[in-house]
Specification:
Strand order of the largest sheet: 3-2-1-4-5-6
CATH class: Alpha Beta
CATH architecture: 3-Layer(aba) Sandwich
Number of domains: 1
Order of helices and strands: EHEEHEHEHEHHEEEHH
Number of helices: 8
């Protein structure tokens, strides 16, 4: 039996190890029965444990890549990862909205490489509010949440930012037997927990989670359903092997929500 697949677009950095960025996003989308399109925003020199440098793709080249994709494919869902300039991000978000007024956008804020390289400091609160006004979902981990919006705790920061857009606070950097992600949506809190694995650390796990959420949104899931399914998929990648690079497994449900 032949199925048609929805399209989803990742705008992110190219990680040669395939654990994070564009390659990880497209693996995740494909494994969740969504056709993944990619726009390269940065070229990184790295592997799963070492980061050396980054070469940025110009805003013009980013838009030129995206323009041809939007001209050819019906793109309703976009994920944004590593970009050079946070102050210029609203311009990109506005351009995406101009291509499709109903577009759903996830921003996974890559502020620091797992090997320690600093991409961005903490942006001003007015910029965070402006960026969030375009978003369907913001997916920070706990350190990223505190950098984006300083507060007493990551939970408090996420709660305050959820006044501007839904926030999925990732729990991988927390402690305890469960890794719990918290979705703050329209004044309500939804929790998604999986057992914390002794060898579950993976390079690019945050990229995988946000891309998995994007895939389920593209297939028609609600935001709560997409976050729950994205968490479950990420758990399978974390459990796939004891190395820092997870394996992806294909889905047999291309239209699970339609």
């Amino acid at each position: 039996m032949t199925f048609s697949r929805p399209y989803a677009l990742s705008i992110a950095g190219f990680d040669p190890s395939g654990g994070a960025g564009l390659l990880a996003d497209c693996k995740t989308l494909e494994s969740n029965a969504v056709y993944g399109l990619g726009v390269c925003a940065a070229l990184t020199v790295q592997n799963d444990v070492q980061f050396q440098r980054v070469s940025w793709v110009s805003p013009t080249d980013i838009l030129d890549q995206a323009q041809l994709l939007f001209a050819r494919f019906p793109i309703g869902c976009v994920k944004i990862g590593l970009v050079e300039s946070l102050p210029q991000l609203p311009e990109l978000l506005g351009w995406l909205r101009a291509q499709n007024s109903h577009i759903r956008i996830i921003w996974d804020p890559v502020l620091k490489a797992s090997a320690g390289y600093e991409f961005h400091g903490g942006p001003p609160s007015t910029l965070v509010e402006t960026i969030c006004s375009f978003l369907t979902l913001l997916t920070p981990n706990r350190p990223e949440m505190m950098r984006l919006w300083p507060a007493a705790t990551p939970e408090q920061a996420a709660l305050e930012v959820s006044a501007f857009c839904p926030v999925l606070l990732k729990g991988g950097h927390d402690r305890g037997p469960l890794a719990t992600d918290i979705l703050l949506l329209e004044g309500k809190e939804h929790r998604f927990a999986t057992p914390r694995l002794p060898q579950g650390e993976k390079h690019g796990s945050g990229c995988v989670l946000s891309a998995a959420v994007l895939a389920h949104l593209a297939k028609g899931a609600t935001l709560v359903e997409a976050c729950r399914a994205g968490k479950a998929y990420t758990a399978t990648v974390l459990a796939s092997n004891p190395t820092l690079l997870g394996y992806h497994f294909g889905s047999t449900q291309p239209h699970a929500y339609q």
